[in-house]
Design brief:
Helix 3 crosses helix 4. The chain has 4 helices and 33 strands. The protein has 3 domains: 168 residues, Sandwich (Immunoglobulin-like), CATH 2.60.40.1930; 133 residues, no CATH class; 141 residues, Macroglobulin (MG2) domain (Immunoglobulin-like), CATH 2.60.40.1930. It is mainly β. The strands form 7 sheets. Strands 3, 4, 5, 6, 9, 10 and 12 form a 7-stranded mixed β-sheet that branches. Strands 2-15-13-7-8-11 form a 6-stranded mixed β-sheet, with no helix packed on it. Strands 16-17-20-24-23 form a 5-stranded antiparallel β-sheet.
């Protein structure tokens, strides 16, 4: 047999940060643009999930979406972002189909791989379905896990890349860290739950005098690192009981990250999912974090969160709402701008990736519902299709009131491919009649960048 060495590649190294799936930017292999798709299922893992996780790798040609077969990966897994940390796993895996799924069973002890090895490279060989079983402390604790993937071979197990020319990818997947604490206010005790979907919760505090919650988590604020990330997303979820008067029954909050105020889509309030609890979401995508990093003169090794209730938030119609799962952002544009009762109003919907801010160009199937202040359903649009990621509906509101709106993403499809169900989730917001939120429009520029704002203004011109 002849040992083939593949030609030199263009320099390539890409990574994503804290996501559940990602197409990493391609490297050139001959006339192919080889991109690595990484996906974890279930998409939301926490320290209380207590189930197996399935981590899928697929090397494919980004030009035609064809899977590159007979791929061999060197996969290294470490806990945290420090590249000098001792790996939990570093081994070689081969898949003939081009699809590799690591079935990870988190448990204490040493890492064990359950698979046979092929003869040429002594790589663990995936079964015909592309699966290899692994047991050990991978994804066992909350926080970030670093996955470094080098590609050794493509097309044939003897097609080895020249040393130093192997395509190299890096991604950080997150296990939600659940932190629970009781806080004292007056003579009452109230439970609080913080779920960090990026890294572990640290230094949780509550000030009863100002009703201020604060905590931090490890974070590298290096601007060059953040700008180099293919994608980056930080999601913090805080749950407080509605029985906590002055906090759980509040409708507006001031919030900051490392002392920098945040607003709009970056702080999402959900009083609807539970009759007993109020949930706040800090939602920071890559553009948000770059903006924050540029405003910080002092860049510590933590991201610091703080929020407290305010008496009058000046309720505004939601201009953008983020799904609770699936990483989807929905832009809501009303026509006419001034919302009026007993008038036909056109609602334009545009779906975006909450992680990157990029518009979704695939077809999105969704439901839309509205509810009056008493919780009665007013509108129900079921299995609507947003072709190419956009759609419009006509709604009428009977009286001047504050209404609740929900957009539920059902599936995403493109050119007859199998539906992508990993983007499913529910986005919630409010519609205030007759008020219209000019501030919400301005917030979009900060969340998604000026290009989207210019496109929106151009459409109105």
């Amino acid at each position: 047999m002849v040992l083939l060495v593949l030609p030199t590649l263009a320099s390539h190294h890409a990574f994503a940060d804290g996501l559940f799936q990602e197409n990493l930017p391609p490297a050139s292999i001959g006339d192919r643009d080889a991109s690595l798709f990484v996906k974890i299922n279930p998409p939301i893992l926490t320290t209380e999930t207590e189930q197996d996780a399935f981590l899928q790798f697929r090397l494919f040609d980004a030009k035609n979406d064809e899977t590159i077969k007979f791929t061999t990966f060197v996969i290294e897994v470490t806990k945290g972002t420090d590249p000098n940390t001792r790996p939990l796993l570093r081994d070689v895996f081969h898949t003939e189909s081009g699809l590799l799924t690591l079935k990870i069973q988190p448990e204490e002890g040493e890492v064990r791989v359950f698979a046979t090895k092929e003869d040429f490279l002594q790589a663990y060989k995936a079964d015909p379905g592309g699966t290899i079983n692994i047991r050990g402390p991978i994804l066992l604790e909350g926080g970030l896990y670093r996955f470094k993937i080098d590609v050794l071979t493509v097309d044939n197990i003897r097609n080895l890349f020249a040393p130093g020319d192997e395509p190299s990818f890096e991604t950080f997947l997150s296990v939600g860290d659940i932190y629970k604490a009781d806080v004292q206010s007056g003579d009452q005790t109230y439970s609080t739950t913080v779920i960090s979907y990026y890294d572990k919760v640290q230094d949780f505090r509550f000030d009863p005098a100002t009703l201020t919650y604060s905590w931090s988590m490890p974070f590298d604020w290096n601007v060059e690192r953040i700008q180099a990330a293919a994608s980056l997303f930080v999601h913090e979820e805080i749950i407080v009981p509605k029985s906590f008067r002055g906090v759980g029954d509040s409708v507006a909050f001031n919030a900051s990250v490392n002392g920098v105020p945040i607003s709009g889509r970056m702080l999402s309030l959900d009083p609807f999912s539970s009759e007993e609890e109020l949930t706040l979401h800090f939602l920071l995508n890559r553009n948000d974090i770059i903006s924050l990093a540029q405003q910080l003169s002092d860049k510590p090794n933590t991201m610091q969160f703080e929020f407290f209730p305010v008496s009058d938030g000046g309720d505004q119609t939601s201009g953008e709402i983020a799904t609770d799962t699936g990483g989807m952002l929905v832009l809501l544009v009303w026509s006419p701008d001034q919302l009026t009762a007993n008038t036909d109003l056109t609602l334009g919907l545009e779906f975006h990736d909450a992680f990157s801010g990029d518009r979704i160009t695939k077809d999105v199937t969704y439901d839309l519902r509205t509810f009056d202040p008493e919780g009665y359903q007013l509108h129900s649009f079921i299995f609507q299709l947003a072709e190419g990621g956009s759609d419009s509906l006509t709604l009428t509101f009977p009286t001047d009131e504050k209404y609740r709106i929900e957009v539920e993403v059902k599936e995403v499809t493109f050119d007859g491919q199998a539906p992508d169900l990993t983007r499913n989730g529910i986005a919630r917001g409010i519609v205030v009649v007759p008020e219209f939120p000019m501030g919400a429009i301005l917030a979009v520029a900060g969340a998604l960048g000026s290009i989207i704002m210019f496109q929106r203004l151009a459409r109105k011109a």
